[in-house]
Amino acid sequence: MTQKPNPLSSIKVNGPIPAHLARSVIEETLRSAILDGRIPCGAALRQQDLADLFGVSRMPVREALRQLEAQSLLNVVAHKGAVVAPLVQGDAVETYALRILLESEALRLSVPLLQDEDLEQAARYIDELETQSDYTEIGRLNRLFHMALYSRAPNRRLLKLVEDGLNEEERFLRFNLEAMGLGKLSQADHQALLRAAEDRDAERSVKLLEHHLNRGVEVITRYLNGPEVQAKNTPK
Fold first, then answer.
1. GO molecular-function annotation terms (predicted)?
2. Mean pLDDT in each 10-residue stretch from start to end of the chain (236 residues)?
3. Domain spanning 92-225 has what CATH number?
4. Which helix (H) or strand (E) holds 144?
5. Which fold has domain 19-84?
6. Do residues 202 and 108 touch, judged by C-beta distance below 8 A?
7. CB–CB of 87/43 below 8 Å?
8. In angstroms, rounded to a whole number, what is the distance separating the alpha carbons of residues 130 and 43?
9. pTM for the complete prediction?
10. Burial of 38 (0-12, 13-18, 19+ CB in 10 A)
């Protein structure tokens, strides 16, 4: 019988981890491995295996897994424990409809409160996106650009929900952006959105954001409904 590969085999731990840093180190290490695909969708992460890998007790492991679950990167499944969450699939329209509601409100609240440094940082992310060809990095920069514009929204719970949605999109884009042929598509949208934010025009910003996200719905839905993806997802 062929033995299944261990999803944790790609993770290297350098030396003992100080107790006060254990939770954050485990969380960030696992988060990076999930985002870059070293730990694939559907992989079960068992607390004792992780405790042995990192050389710690199960308590910081449990805390790290809770944080990753809150970021929508893990699901808790009966009899399997923590399982790496799937990428965006056939519910892309519903996912983006919710994102439009949440992100529009975050942007509406944030724009009047944005500082010059927030706008300068957002502009830097656009510049980096222009020259970036690594799809992993494109997904990360896209998330950071949007969060830079939402960051002054005073409702922290809203921001948490928004960031969870962007984390989910980042994972999807990392593995599908090249196949979708998106690349530079959203840059004009990003630049227009930044100009509206610089003018402190919240309503224009929200309209541009809605247009931008609806464009994403169209492209992703077309991609997911395409013959290659359908064939890949059809049970053999």
1. DNA binding; DNA-binding transcription factor activity
2. 68 85 93 84 91 94 92 81 74 79 97 98 95 83 95 96 85 69 70 97 97 82 65 44
3. 1.20.120.530
4. helix 135-150
5. Arc Repressor Mutant, subunit A (1.10.10)
6. yes
7. no
8. 34
9. 0.70
10. middle
